[in-house]
Amino acid sequence: MSEKHPLILVPGLLCTAELWRDQAQALSDIADIHIPTHHLDNNIEAIADRILRAAPDQFALAGLSMGGYVALEIILRAPERVTHLALMDTRADADTEQDKKKRQDFINLVERGRVFKGVTESLLPMLIHPSRFKDNALTSRIYQMAEDIGKDGFIQQEIAIMNRKDRWAELSQIDCPTLVLSGNEDALIPAPNQQKMAEAIPDAEFHIIPECGHLPSMERPFETNTIMREWLSW
Asked: For residue 12, what are the domain limits?
């Protein structure tokens, strides 16, 4: 029996290990999976450092949304340690001023004491495909993740995202097998934008999942697992 490949799965904003529940189960026969938390620091560099300190010498790395920002920071900081990279429903550029204002508005809502779950309810149409809005099994998992991260964790994460660096010009430096995966109806980061990111990475393949929003690992786990299993064999 071949040795399992170390695989680090980095969650997104307001997400916990539950984001990767189906992948952790489906890929456990070929991968030794680690899922870090990242709501303890308020900058991407510190999050990347914390993950690297706990990581094995070499590992495959996947990040979704905010997790993709962290994954890019990790591979650009320690390229010799990352054997495979997967960027899912994420982007390489920094926030625009408009993006930052939206994030600050969410932070202000939370700090004024509004019900924290309301933040997730406001975001839900941006997170999943419209056909899943009434899928209670899915939406309850999303709400629970947000509750587990909590108000303080959410603010830490948003501050980190707002202040992240633009990494677009550095994509050409990535030289490991790279998967860029997108839901075809991602309302937060449109699939064509992610395809352009894949085209900027020398050894990247772009995959798109139909009838899927911003959270393919939860919305379309079978398709995501199939693509990731293939990616780990590259």
From this structure: 1-234
